[in-house]
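Hi X.,

You mentioned you wanted examples for the new student's onboarding notes, showing what a folding record looks like when two proteins sit in one file. Here is a clean example. The first protein comes first, with its sequence line followed by its structure tokens.
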Amino acid sequence: MNSVRQLDRSETVARVPNGLLAKLTGLAIVSLVPAIFWTGVLALVGFMLSINFSAQALFFVGLLIAIFLSIVFGSLALSSNSQN
């Protein structure tokens, strides 16, 4: 006899209200991927032009890009939810 209870596939361990996990994942992808890409492009262009950006400067550029994109995407996501 197996004493371990088998979980039904419809059961979930943690329930996330209204697809919050999907929205947060989308927000992370939309803000972080372009921020990493453009920070890398800036570092590459600086390297090609013999300009040495500090790691702190590159970090803050990426951080500002990510914050800006998360604000824009967050406001668009909120406005699309209010229209439905």
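Then the second protein repeats the pattern, sequence line and then tokens:
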Amino acid sequence: MSKEEFASKLQNFMNLQGVDVRASTVIEMFVAEGLLNIEGSNIYAPREIAMGASSGGKFISGNNSTSETKTTKIVASGNAQIVGTGNTAIVQDSGGSIRFFVGKKESK
């Protein structure tokens, strides 16, 4: 891998570690290319949380992280992780559902 390719790969990386992220309605986290890593963090939005990755992306949520809406909660305790790569998504919605998508997301 060339120096330029290595630098390009580093540009597509976000690490949320030990943070509290709160929104008044919805949080959407989608990775088109690269990596979104969430560790030891708490994500909260009362209505909906959506995490996903397209074919060139990857998300990891875990290592003592929570993702919570008013009606749903995902807890990844200890070394537990949820990993999504290539056209995957998790949606926690206002109706109390948690949906996992692999491949093309179907419309509601």
